[in-house]
Amino acid sequence: MDTIKELTSRRPDTPGISPADDYRLVAIDLDDTLLGDDLKISGRAKQAIRRSREKGIHVTLATGRMLRSVLPYAEELDLNLPLITYQGALVKNSRTGEVLYHRPVPGEFVGPVADIIRSYGYHLQMYNYDELCMERFTPEGADYARLAGVGVTLVEDLRFACPQPTKVLVVNYQEWRLDELARVLGDRFGDSLYVTKSKPHYLEILHPEATKGKALKVVADYFGVPRESVVAIGDSFNDLDMIQYAGLGVVMGNAREEIKRYADYVTRGNNDDGVAEVLEQWVLKEF
């Protein structure tokens, strides 16, 4: 991955940001970005997305969620284009079935990763393509399934049930424990795996090329859109490389300060129509 650009937040009238007329592709994270804390899309955001699409701009979702968990929101927005899911491990148009990009975790790392995580006793789950698999239905697993709105498949051994998982997820509500585990995994596997956090209590292990930034480039190339004409909106560590890739990298107002410092622009929070503000101000030019 390229080094993340170090930028301070800049207002729309600051020189150096390309004109709104140039923006032709917008990638929006879901949780804590497009979705409010109630896990719903506001009416204002829906309208701004609809009007952006009417203007000929491609609007996609870029999320760590599994594809099945994204579909209700894609259908609600009537999106018919490739969706970035699993942090970028799978880019697929659910309507046509077209897969643009799929980077599952290499099989040789699955067993060693599982063994390390088990030694810590943390909740572990894997995804067999688009099937959520667990060995035990823990309280953390129940919380995740409720948030994602998907069912769970219980298996005897994740290593055999998911020989090449789309991704591996660890859940623990003490963030420092996940940070410690991330360091251990980083020291052991180096650049062979991509380790990131999508939420303070979610640690994700993926193929090294399964990032939102790489997936966004795939979608941009698919539509023939140069990176300077791309807008990316997110809130967390797993969004940083797509924020770096985009011509306009936007961070939500509810994000941590260490995330905001990478933004070209910091918008309002997810409960205050931050995504709608970005689209209205930068794409629809209503301010």
- Identify the strand order in the major beta sheet: 8-7-6-9-11-10
Which structural class is indicated by helix and strand composition?
Answer: alpha/beta
Topology order in helix (H) and strand (E) letters? EHHEHEEEHEEHEHEHEEHEHEHEH
Low-confidence stretches: 1-16
Please count the beta strands (DSSP E, at least 2 residues each).
Answer: 14
**Distance separating the two termini:** 35 Å
User: What is the arithmetic mean of pLDDT?
Assistant: 92
Tally of separate domains: 2
Architecture of the largest domain, according to CATH?
3-Layer(aba) Sandwich
**Considering DSSP H and I runs of 4 or more, what fraction of the residues is helical?**
25-40%
The CATH topology of the largest domain comes to Rossmann fold
Kindly provide the radius of gyration, computed on alpha-carbon positions and rounded to a whole number of angstroms: 18 Å
β-strand amount: 15-25%
